[in-house]
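USER: If only I could read backbone structure tokens as easily as an amino acid sequence. It would mean a lot if you studied the pair and described how this chain folds. Here is the record:
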Amino acid sequence: MELMLGRIFGVVMALPFKALDLVWTAGERTVAVTQRLSRNARLQAEQRAVEAELDRKQDELRGTILRLAEALGAEAHEARKALIRESYLASGRVPERPTDS
């Protein structure tokens, strides 16, 4: 009986320490999860910033490409007009003017 009471007493005395150990372990896990979530949030924020910069750069490049295409189109039009003019001069003919009818 005395041995059994000693064991019960030992278990009862150990319970607060076991409870503290469980609380400590749960706290460590909570901190680890919080840190992981915080790191993931930082990585997601960095990814969003990079994607926003890429979107901005893409819009800038699209605008540049469209301006260059417009300039090339204008130059091509002028080059075609010059070739037509030169062909008429070389042939000695005068282009006919369209009649408004």
Q: What stands out?
A: The helical segments are 2-91.
